[in-house]
Amino acid sequence: MSEDAMPMPNQILATPLNELHADISGIPGFEHVGPGLSLQAILETVEQAPVAISITDIRANILYVNSAFENLTGYTRDEICGKNESLLSCNTTPLEVYRDLWRTIQSGKVWRGTLVNRTKTGESYLAELNIAPVLDAGRRITNFLGMHRDISTLHQLEQELKHQKVLSETILDLAPTIVVLLDSEHNVLLDNQAYKQLKASFGDTEPAHLFLEALADRLDGGDAFGGFNDAQVRFDAPNGAECWFTVSGIHVDELDHAAQNYFKAGNDAENGHYLLLVATDITTRKAEAERARIQQLKVQIAEQELTQSIRETLSGAIFQLETPINVIQAALAMSHSSPEALYPILRQVLDSSLRALDAMRRVLPKAEQERRFLVNINQILKDLLVISTDRLLSVGAVVDWKPEPVLPTITGSESSLRRMFHYLLDNALLSLEEAGRRNPELRIHTSVKDDAIWVEITDNGVGIPAKQRLKVFEPFQSGWKRGRGKAGMGLSMAQEIVNSHGGGIRIDPDYASGCRFLVNLPIRYSSEAEA
């Protein structure tokens, strides 16, 4: 206690324990103590208590100290008794603490707090004190009972723990990766600066909850308690932007403060688990990879278009040659009606035509045999929209893209299906270009119905007359003025690809504001595709 706050000592010495012999039954407050307990036993208990105990008068002059007090302070009872408690003050405790102490105990209440004390050798230590007023029968304060212990080591450990916590949080905040700790109720307990920045960009949405939704299969499966590494997750930000992360997670047992579980082993206590998530934003890297993939698709589609154009041109030429060749063959078959001089000429023309026809058939590009795998139709359509961005912009078309949120995969040839939808998209754009509308629209919707995937491709272009709706699926039929020189095999090829996948394609007869193609593809799997 501060010397300013404490009065000077009265030099009153403590009474030695061996001089105190009495039966405590007559002492007020001890009426209910068993007859076998003497005052001597109580005093010996105080003397041997492991906590430092001192008794002072109302001016804080020391009347009695126990052995633990001597051991802690270094003062013997002969040296300290009669001295004021302020002798132990290190003069670093704020004066307001001493004032609060005196106000509390003089009002008859117990004061609990911490002071900086010093030993006889001048070494300072941190003392945790409980000072209680001792009252007589008239509720007047006669003495003060003080108990204190050295908590310097505990304080040092607490400070080291705080330092480690600050150091860990600083390191976490400086880390470029996202770190977040969740409890079993999915509340955020700890996060770093990278996570805070991500959360700021998400507004009211908690990014950790989006991580958990994307990781649902991992958390519900065998990795739930074993942890997982570098799981790629994707979700959409509030602004619609696509976000990609690699996430690693580990489960840690939650702290269990329940008293009944004190002696239980960590695995025996039925406590929950913390989930520590470490995530790295790979959106930029994924976008670069996606651009490279789209560019590769553009090259692939361009090559396929060139091959298909050559196939269409040669097929058209073969088709055109077959008609006169058939006429010549018929004429030669009727040799009796052909002039004798004309026969060799017709034979020569026929042979030359057949050789040319055979040569064209040999150079006709053959369709590649493609293996079938599990295909995501939404992804194919999305890729085609990205690839066709420049052309959509040139037409000025407003695209209404509404995919089914969860679309099952189907067994099929990805490149063939991509070509098929490219034919239909190309047809829609030609229709819009030819219509020349002020507000061209293109709508692409996907849905699931009757164990099949349905795709609607709708435009508000010139439309296809009812009498042409079957004919447009025939080879070499093209009604577009701006067909860019194509022979018109697109819809025919589209129908062929759909049929090869066990589906169907037709033009909606009830749609009169343009053209709507309805494509259905059955949802079925094969062992080859699953492999």
In short:
Its EC number is 2.7.13.3. The protein is α+β, with helices and mostly antiparallel strands.
Task: Describe the protein in words.
By secondary structure, the protein is α+β, with helices and mostly antiparallel strands. It folds into four domains: 17-150, PAS domain (Beta-Lactamase), CATH 3.30.450.20; 165-255 and 271-281, 2-Layer Sandwich (Beta-Lactamase); 287-363, no CATH class; 373-530, Histidine kinase-like ATPase, C-terminal domain (Heat Shock Protein 90), CATH 3.30.565.10. 39% of the residues lie in helices and 22% in strands. It is built from 15 helices and 17 strands. The strands form four sheets. The protein has a five-stranded antiparallel β-sheet with strand order 2-1-5-4-3, sandwiched between helices. The chain has a five-stranded antiparallel β-sheet with strand order 7-6-10-9-8. A five-stranded mixed β-sheet has the order 12-14-15-17-16, with helices on one face. Helix 13 packs antiparallel against helix 14. The protein is rod-shaped, with a radius of gyration of 46 Å. The chain starts with 38 loop residues before the first helix and ends with a helix. The model is unreliable at 1-25, 483-488 and 527-531 (pLDDT under 50).
